[in-house]
Predict the 3D structure of the following.
Amino acid sequence: MANRLFKSNNSRSRWPFHKVLIANRGEIAVRIIRTCRVLGLATVAVYSTTDAKALHVKLADEAVCIGPGSAEKSYLNISALIGAALVTGADAVHPGFGFLSESVAFSRACQDNDLTFIGPSPETIALLGDKEAARLTMRRAGLPLVKGSQEPLHDLATALAQAEEVGYPVMLKAAAGGGGKGMRIIRNAEEMEAKFAVAQDEARASFNDDQMYLEQYLAHPRHIEVQVIGDQYGNALALGERDCTIQARHQKVIEEAPAAVLPAPVREAMLAQSEQAAAQLKYEGLGTIEFLYNEDGSYYFMEMNTRIQVEHPITELTTRVDLVESQFLVAAGAQLKAERPASVGYAIECRVNALTPGKITALHLPGGPGVRVDTALYQGYTVPSNYDGMIAKLIVYGERRQRALQQMQAVIDETVIDGIKTNLDLLIEILQAPAFQRLTTTVNWLDDQMNPNQKEEQDDED
């Protein structure tokens, strides 16, 4: 159980848990199973009827069907997940990302049934899920904040009142999760009346929680996030930062580590403040503190995610730390070292999204030095329409950003995914764009590059 983040005397020959139920699907479930195999932990996959032939089902030691294709009746069904853990004798649960990974109710249900939840305590998740409480905590830790709502938003009337107090434009967000689900830019009261219920419905469908919050909308920032980890003894470390500025409709598309735009003093301040915040929270497990960063060097705390991120592989490559293993080690009581690990080299991740469902008729995934692919695809697999469209992550590592960019373009050119439409062509366009190469993009840049008619149609859908 050696891991360079932890003191060697914490290495132990036996885990306090032995069988892990993975409460997720797709590539993150495959990723967790891989680490469990290395660590000698047995695995239980759960699946909906739609996912009966999914790769994570094939790879796990055991698999349990937990319901029909609807996420609400399967992957968001707490009683079905707990039942699957108990019937298989699992003694730990890893929630992955999305679905119930930031659910207080799910974390508490695991606790109540003597299941080790691989993540923070229900109390910590509740604190950081309460956006105003999280903002106050981060303010005490010294992080600068944008103006935001003072209480959870349950209805349109409260949202309108809070938006007037904060001042339009505002960003409306789901309180229970991230990934762009339930997120809308609101420019005036009329837009709030038109979009609040739609965003709330989307939040409920994605996280089984329709609480919302809002904050002042900054028009042209970059999105920077700091990876933190805390142990059971009050120690916390920042494991570098990631630049997640390239987004489409609030969904991340390309991520980089480190964030090349940050001056060294700003980076050090951001990492140190993030460590201080995690320590002040007595945070246990892996988490991400997200910031909006302006070109003048100012930055503002946005939110903290209490789970592993989609983009964790680029931090793994630059720090040489298995973050999933680190989650298990924290849950097992291992103690962090005092020093922050150095970040070396440059890593880029491109998210490959399915634009249509369908059967994979031909598949070739790239390889070579510095190349990593996280996916649950295989030839003959049918990509369903029920869930998020991300089907693979292409990751490259190099000594410098320019080298990594060139390698990523070669990797995408080598990738073959036939039978469905994907965003591979869009990824190449982004990588070749002068603004991307010069690091002059903002979080709205990609949406602004879209065909105006298409953008107008998408805004109407919002």
User: Anything to note?
Assistant: Residues 8-125 form a domain with the Rossmann fold fold (CATH 3.40.50.20). The radius of gyration is 21 Å.
